[in-house]
Amino acid sequence: MTEAPRPATNLQIPDDLSGIAAEQYRAAMRHYPAGVTIITLSSPNGPVGFTATSFASLSLEPPLVSFNIAHTSSSITALLDADSVVIHFLGEHQQHLAQRFARTAEERFVDRSLWTTLDTDEPVLHGTPIWVRATLQQLIPIGDHTLTVGLVTRVHDNTDETPIAAPLLYYKGHYHRPTSLNE
Ligand SMILES: Cc1cc2nc3c(=O)[nH]c(=O)nc-3n(C[C@H](O)[C@H](O)[C@H](O)COP(=O)(O)O)c2cc1C
Fold first, then answer.
1. 138: Cβ–Cβ under 8 A, 6 or more apart, which residues?
2. What is d(CA 126, CA 87) in angstroms, rounded to the nearest whole number?
3. Rounded percentage of the chain residues whose pLDDT exceeds 90
4. Does the pLDDT at position 119 exceed 60?
5. Residues 26-53: what's their mean pLDDT?
6. Which atom of ligand 1 has the smallest separation from the CA of 175?
7. pLDDT band at 1 (very low <50, low <70, confident <90, very high)
């Protein structure tokens, strides 16, 4: 009989860490490129949002996505209380938003011309090529982050608009746009 996978919460990490230094880990991770998202939600104290590259597509049936939020994040209390989020897949023209949503939390939503609110209350950033709404299913604290799993309930796709916006990427501490090898 196949052994059932162990739940992630049983994670056992020795006290002396894993044998590599934090610097070594950080230096290696810089070389892994990632798409840039902004995750937004509504809270009793107003809109909340942060830039995140930890987004991943997790499952097709059912349609699940995941991302990780740092335990030190000013957004974590609101996220733990929220029922849903909107995940924006940023275009290359939205680098300023990626920067804004990684800086001072109080200033992220100050410019009212940058966003609107869905009928389900989450803030949505104008001009985003694709955004998905997801209801939160599981919040799993692991290490210094919480792995968050959401069920996609709505997809908003603007990618048939012209000019087509290339996705915004983050790599080695800088923002990039992709270059195709096949054209
Ligand atoms: C490119 C980039 C990717 C990021 N990815 C994440 C992420 O996946 N999860 C996370 O919790 N914070 C991530 N952050 C950090 C947050 O955007 C934010 O800067 C941080 O939470 C500090 O905000 P705070 O002062 O509101 O806590 C990322 C920042 C940048 C610039």
1. 147, 148, 149
2. 13
3. 83
4. yes
5. 98
6. 1
7. very low
Judge whether 87 and 37 are in contact, CB under 8 Å: yes
> What does each C-alpha distance from 164 to 23, 98, 161 come to in angstroms?
38, 19, 6
Q: What's the longest Cα–Cα distance across the chain?
A: 58
Q: Taking the domains of the chain in order of start, what are their residue ranges?
A: 34-170
Do the beta carbons of residue 136 and residue 84 sit within 8 Å? Answer: yes
On whether the pTM is more than 0.85, the answer is yes
**Ligand 1 centroid from CA 181, angstroms:** 30
pLDDT bin (cut points 50, 70, 90) of residue 19 is: confident
Whose structure tokens read 């982050």?
Answer: 145
State which ligand 1 atom lies nearest to the alpha carbon of 73: 27
- Does 169 have pLDDT greater than 60? yes
Residues at CB less than 6 angstroms from ligand 1: 36, 50-54, 67-70, 73-75, 101-102, 105, 170
Closest CA to 70 of 85, 58, 53, 84: 53
- Segment 156-167 shows an average pLDDT of 86
Q: How far is the CA of 79 from the centre of ligand 1 (A)?
A: 14
Compute, in angstroms, the gap from residue 39 CA to the centroid of ligand 1.
10
CATH of domain 34-170: 2.30.110.10
